[in-house]
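Re: [help] complex structure
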Amino acid sequence: MGNKGMYAGVATMLVAAMLTGCSSSGNNASPSAGESAGNGSGASASSSAAANASASASTDASQPAWKTDTSPFTFTQYFYGNWASNYLWKDQYAMKLVTEKTGVTIDRRLATGADDDYLNTMIAAGDLPDSIMLDWNNPAVTKLIQNGMVYSIDELIDQYAPEFKSQLDPEMVKYHSVDGKLWYLPNIYETEDRLTSGVPIVPIRPWFIRSDIYQAIGSPKIETTDDLMNALVAAKEKFPDVNPVGLEFFNVAQNGFRASNSMDYLIYSFSPHLLEEQVKDDQQVLEYPMRNKGFIDAFRYLNQLYRNGLFDSQLLIYKQEQYEEKLYGAQYAVASQYMSNMYTMFNPKIQSTVGQDQTYTVLDGLKANGQDPRYPASRLMGWQGFFITKNAKNPERIIKFAEYAWSDEGQLDMRYGTEGETYDMVDGLPQLKSDILDMKLNDNATFNSKYGFEDSTLLWRAGKLWDDASARDLKMSQPEQYAASVLLAKYDYDSYSLGMENLEPDGSSAEGTINTKVKDLWNKTIPKLVMAKTDDEFDSAYASFVKQMDQTGAEKVEKTMYQRHLEDLKKKGLQ
Amino acid sequence: MSGIPVKQSLARRIWLQRYLMILTLPAVLWMIVFHYIPMYGIIIAFQEYTPYQGFLHSPWIGLANFNELFADPTFRESVFNTFKISLAKLIFGFPAPLLLALLLNELVFKRFKRVVQSLTYLPYFVSWVLVVGFMYTLLDPDTGAVAKLLVKTGLIGDEVMLMGSAHSFLTLVVVTEIWKNVGWNSIIYLAAIAGIDPQMYEAAVMDGASRFRRVWHITLPAIKPTVLILLILSIGGLVNSNFDQMYLMQNSMTQDAANVLSVYSYKMGLVSGRFSYGTAIGLFQSLVAFLLMYLANYSSRKLTQESLF
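Output below.
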């Protein structure tokens, strides 16, 4: 007994060691992040690399570098997004096509738990895979670059695939360069014409109303926030068992200050000029949205819904799965969901299980206090960056592979497969064969596991060809969704020039720590606001939040965010 | 074993205990590999650790992390919460398996005893993820069976969100912890009780002792050493509230109540990527745990001559 006790005691004492128990293997390489790629990874790599680079450059400059070596090669990749099981390589059509052409297989992995933990643990241990797909504005990006854990893409290109450089949009390179170097290839970097071409952009989570309920209450006009309130009251009277409003899960750490993605719909109704109003040039700060009256009014509206018995406070602690389970059963009169999911997942399921009459119809944007809503619809500056880490055993092959993925050929292979077999060119635009397109719409799971289109290299390049093709597909195969998108897109404005990209400071910096605390604080204030029994209670909860936020040092973060805002403008060439 | 002379050479004693040594070897190796070797990582609590520079070359910053820690109101809150939750668990959770073991021991119908024993220790094998999932479902004010039952019996008001209330949080934590672990923890006591010489009970019966007298004068004194050792260990564990349970039961309405040391260390260290700060929190936790256990052991030795070391 005695020994066992001692033993367990020491175990207790050493729990702390668990966090620190990461190995630091592989960290002894040269520390200078700016150094040339070859030097960082040992002599053999650099000499062979130089030889290859000169060889491929001199022998045949016209031939793409990836064609010089198509022997079998596998590299590992971590994809930031544990939901992305469709992206795993399992012999889907698109994946096999890539391997056939280039010899390359991507051993893609997902986080086993939360992504930020998984990534931070890998960084702390210096145990990174060959490549990473990670949101370019994730705080960990700075860490990867500053710690010299990733190769500079330009240097790899110069060395191994010089002709690749001309394929990169110079504006993109300028925008995404850090310290004068490009450290990752961003996918879906959209150009200016994105706002006018392609699928209409709906930058908010739309709200929908259940068709039968809408009819039962007399199909009233729902144009203002008051109209919506009245419609919900009427719906509750006629359908006392149905939950009046359903919103996606609330979590400030995951969804940002709006807490629930569904809140954007209300926020940009109550505060159509929110983004402009956050920037206070005279004070050199970029304010937290929580200081904005309209932004708070959106939450006040939720509070009114709650007080009228129209909002179930359970939603504040629901997980997304719990909410979606109820939505699949059409248990809400008004519900919010990602546009494409509503039309390709929820409505079809509802139709087949509870009936066509209970499917959801989109609501128009809501006027609040006499103003039209405005939805900030910037073109995407990129979604994820493709990073090649210093752990990569063969960065040469990987960069050459990236050249393939980036090329028109690679793009077509990933999205459409083989011409004549899986797609045809129609009026200069690729179009999936009709049976495959059908499968995509009606049996998405099989489509993904069989074909894996859009899932293979993930290095989407944006551009008019792709935009036009997808717009045409949507219009043709999903007319209802297309119409819904057009309906809401009329409230869009281009927020590109506002310089609001990537504002929040790195989580491990002093300001980042304050920012985390502000988020925590806001996260727990939201239930107090929404469930306030009187206006006074709401106001005092809000006042105490602002006071606490200021005590935490929010202004420091707001100053930093202002600097980052200036930086964003500068990178866009707007200042 | 009684035949072994008291004085023997070390080698001979090792030889005689060779099978026991082999039995404990895997556990000792496990300790060394997973608990001693990683311990050097504690040094990053005193560094501004950056992964690229590693453990050896990251800049030393002395006690800066600890200075920040003690000035950090969220940290103080997490210390307070940790002790509050652990004390509640100790007060209600510690006697529970002991009581269960005593009750089980008094059962005459052996098959029933075995069934009860199995049923009570089954929850131990259910992971916290599932348990908390059950809780969200069963305690949902609209659809949850348990919530409805509690409303019917008048224990809670209508529309009370048990999972979304800081008031019910502590109760739920303690109740679920006991439900999950009571059967498992009673096994040790049952084993200890099984070791008591039946002649003592027979003698007590002859003297006309009632059941309660027998439990009070024979069973409890006989298992006192076991109880005390487990108590000392529990006190050492006061500072470790169950991470899985806290993390999973945390939501926007309970985030203050569920902010305990291990959750805070995880949030700072892994979610925000402040590795050094997170480690400092963990190190603080370990030191307090060690001190608490030492004190408990010391007092136990002084008061009852029973101790771990």
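Chain A has a mean pLDDT of 87.
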